[in-house]
Each structure stands twice: as structure tokens, then as C-alpha cells.
Amino acid sequence: MKKNKKAKTIQNKVFRLGELFCGPGGLAVGALNAKVKTKNGIYRIEHAWANDYDHDSCETYIQNICKHQPETVFTTDVKYLNIENLPSIEGFAYGFPCNDFSVVGEQKGLDGKFGPLYSYGVKVLNYHKPKFFVAENVSGLSGANGNKAFAKILSDLESAGNGYTLTAHLYKAELYGIPQRRHRIVIVGIDRKFKLAFKVPAPTTSDSPRTAKQALEDPPIPKDAENNELTNQSATVIQRLEKTRPGENAWTSNLPDNLKLNVKGARLSQIYKRLDPDKPSYTITGSGGGGTHGYHWDEPRALTNRERARIQSFSDTFIFLGSKESVRRQIGMAVPPVLSRVIFSAILKTLAGKEYKSVPSNISHQLVINSNY
């Protein structure tokens, strides 16, 4: 009898997904492409609704994720979103704003403007009680507010809804086929009533990470590809890049005095840093002034948005809408679709009772909670 009862709890094989802070759709692409075949059928995820305050991101999301359902994407500040009126869901995802957790910023954590926004995801969990959720943020989340912010977030997520069994892990994107050293904390929660625990999927490219050169040249980007406009570089920037070897930046290259940067204080390693063609790219970012746009290893120029999108593992058919700078921001803030697919595939396998290669989590969420909260 118990076996039959358990089978009923995972009878549905299609899980409707809701998203907050959806951005252009990196998480969604991976989720919708994740499909698991079993003897009982195919487990898959479909779009239900999404929300973001940024107009261009929502337009991009609609264009690529739900072109025939534009009414399911809500462009508004999450503070004004009526969570109770949203359609029911079985899955939930949100990459809550990272501004106050990033190691590059002031790390205000829960005391900042953006830090407390994770709580809106908790509200979704409490009201809709989805069977699983995925929460994503920068690696700096674990250290914000002396680690107490992370402990508070984990505690709130664990006790939300019917209660969730959590698995938190610091993923290194380059170990999963993404041609970029991008490290992000992902928290997966599964409703406790299933008595299932998500396991971290094993890396796929530990020994042979995809390189920047492979990302941009295999295959070559079509000449008529969207979002592939070149940046008009100043003569000074061109000269500076010509004097900078692949893998070097403005501080490590041997620049003449007239090309050196007059910067006091912190010196970010990515400033005018050229990609190393034989290694994964450094982290693609969505904001920042001069010197932060990512630079080609051979040509003295900034990367195009299509090149950035490839490094983020978006396909060339994924079209970003908005101004050139808006597109750059959307790409830099997104979750790599390939990493998303790996994680959502593992979730579906967990729900379907299907084994897969896994590794131990590198974050003990219970230890974090007990020691910091």
C-alpha cells in the first residue's frame, strides 16, 4: 500500500514552472529542455508564468520562451505582484537579485536594497507549495552579513510551504560544459512529503573544459547572427589591447606609461583583460564601465553580445531584445542555460526515482544554519 501511495504523489509527469526575477530566460531554457524518459513516460517541465521588473528582459523572455503566451509574463516590480492570483505551479525558480551579495560590491546582504527580495520567493513557496524549487545566487551569498544572511535564507526556504529538503551547492560552470569560470550557489528544495533528496549532478567536463576559442569558433558565428554588433573602440583602447597578451589585463601587461590606467584603490582583475583562447572565459558580467566588457584574445576589441551569449551557453537562435547595453546586461545577469538544464534534469530524475551520477554537496546547509542563525 505504501508503494502505491508514493507512486501517486509523483504521478504527474509535467511540472508547470513559475519564475520570479526571470531575466531573459536562462533558467527557463534549461528547464524546458530538461526531459527524462522512464518506463512510465517522459518527465518534463513547461512554462506557467514569469516575472521581472525589467521591460527588455521580459520582452526577450516572451520572444524565446512563450511567444504565444505573452500574457503569462508579468512586467512589474515584485513588490506589486499579486502572488495569490498567479496560476498554480508544481515547480518554482528564482535567481533573486545578487547586488547586495556580490563580492565585487559592498556586500550589504539583507541590510541592502536588494538583499531582502529573496523573501518574495518564500511567499510563493508558502502560497503555491510547489513540489520543488531552484534558487540561484552569487558565491558571495555565503559570506554576506558574516554568513548570517545565508543562514537566514536557508532557514526560511527550508520551513516554507510544506517544508523542503534542501541541497545547496557551489557550482563551477566550467565543470559542466560552459566555457566560462562562473561560480554560483544553487539551492534545490524538494517537498518533504516525497521523502526524496536531490543529489548534486556530477561534473561533465572536469578534465576537458570547453575553451573560449571553442565557444566562439566551433562553429563560427554566422555573419548575419543577431546581437553581434561590434563596439566602436577608441584608438587608446585599441593600442592598449594590442599591447596586452591573451590572458593578461591592464595591470599585468607591460604597458607604456601613456596607456596605463590611473586608478587608485581596488584593481579588478577583469579590467581590459583579454580572453585566453585555450581556457574557459572569465566571468561575463552585465554591468560596469570602461574595461569590463570582455575582450577578444586576437582582435583588439570588446566581445560582441552574441559572443558573450555563446560564452554563457545561449544558442545563436536565442534573440535578445533591447538596446545594445541592455542586451549586455541581460546576458551577464543570466543563468547559463546548459547549467540550468543539468540541474533541472537531475531534479526530474530525482522525482522519477531514476539514478544518476552525483557528487557530495560542498555546502552543508544545516551546518550553516546551526552555526550562524
How would you describe the overall organization of this protein?
The chain is of the alpha/beta class and 373 residues long. The protein has a domain of 244 residues: Rossmann fold, CATH 3.40.50. It is built from eleven helices and ten strands. Strands 1, 2, 3, 4, 5, 6, 7 and 8 form an eight-stranded mixed sheet that branches. The chain has a two-stranded antiparallel ribbon with strand order 9-10. α4 links the parallel β5 and β6. α2 packs across α10 and α5 packs across α11. The two termini are 40 Å apart. The N terminus is likely disordered.
- Radius of gyration of CA atoms, rounded to a whole number: 21 Å
Highest CATH level, the class of the domain at 2-207 and 335-372 = Alpha Beta
The helical percent reads 25-40%
The overall pLDDT, averaged over residues, is 89
Q: What is the CATH topology of the domain at 2-207 and 335-372? A: Rossmann fold
What composes the largest sheet?
8 strands, mixed
Q: Kindly estimate the percentage of residues that lie in beta strands according to DSSP.
A: 15-25%
CATH level-4 homologous superfamily of the domain at 2-207 and 335-372: Vaccinia Virus protein VP39
Number of helices: 11
